[in-house]
Amino acid sequence: MALFGTIRWLKPTMRGLLGLSFGVIMAFPGAGWTQQQSTAMRSAEMPVEAESGFLHNQGAQPRFESASKISPEALVAVEQQRIASVPHFSGSFDFAGTNFPFTMVGSKPQSGRSTTIPTQLIPVTLYFDGYVDSAGKPIVLGPEPILPQVEASPNFRNAVYLSGVTQFGDAVQRAQFYRIMSQDWHTLLGPPEVLKPVTIEVPRGSAKVYHNRSTGAVYALVDTAFFISHLNTIVQLEDLHPDALAVVLTTNVFLTPELDVKKCCVLGFHTAFDAGEVENTHLIQTLVWASWLDAGILSGNVADVTPLSHEISEWMNNPFDSNLVPAWQSLGSPGVCQNSLETADPVAALPNAGYPVTIDGITFHPQTQVLLPWFTRGSSDTLDGALSFPDPGLVTRTSLPCAK
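User: That's the sequence. What structure does it adopt?
Assistant: Structure tokens below.
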């Protein structure tokens, strides 16, 4: 599903991340702004009280997006291996007389090499005009309090899986190529380099804020176009490196077009875009946005790093959003079809897609992924012939073609 608009230039060396107009990043000035804030707070309202299951009862479900913003020239450069970006390798498979090439992050499984990709993490805080809590303080949702948990999560720390003791994304990749990989093969993320935090002021009409009566969690539905426009600006302000994965992190923020709760909730996306050109080499930046989720807001076991793990694994399997596969139907939403190699989307709407992983006494819920044979509907090189991982019982048959 297309989420993003037409590409535009952001600055001479960087093509637009998502293609919408620029936003304004909030910078808190001095006394003048404080007086304006005080006046605005007197007319503010408290978050809407909502029971657990409110979003599900309204028809909302976990949604994720991907959108390549790579120029046609750069896509040709990708095919010709004339790019500078995250380390990657290529392969292909045949189906019904058609060859489907793919590009994935890391080195070839047979190489036995361990590849570590640097990670640049941008904490983004949202300040909601027109909303206050029960004490009259402004509503602010930011990831700083949970950054230690994110850094200690399975995305960056080792845990025990059937495919080895390693990070979550690497465990999935090793399960996917288990029969042909060399045992020392790994695709890892380096410890996150936390970049300059950003605060966005969200004006009235661009968000709806809710309070979960049972858990106390505060969460917000934010207009998709508003958030994306600000993300364009963030890309300009931060010193991103094309050989690193950029991670934009929010907390309890759900994107939905025009605040329509029935079209909620986009929890993350991954994208790639032009970052300049040096001689005949195109620089390609890859990026994911994901929101940390407090438990109990969404149904099932979607919580904490479910969105982040979803996007990191999909980025590993489709970094430039250029990998096409035979069209398939989503398991959680029959009749909804895609033809991209998106390993988490097929099961994202299933209530038990989160997989519990405990590290240092904290249980996280990264999302189970489908493996390559699910898309190819052919022979398997996976661990024990599994079609999904780390929960091999979640998916037991290959993808269904889309009805014509």
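Confidence is low (pLDDT under 50) at residues 1-36.
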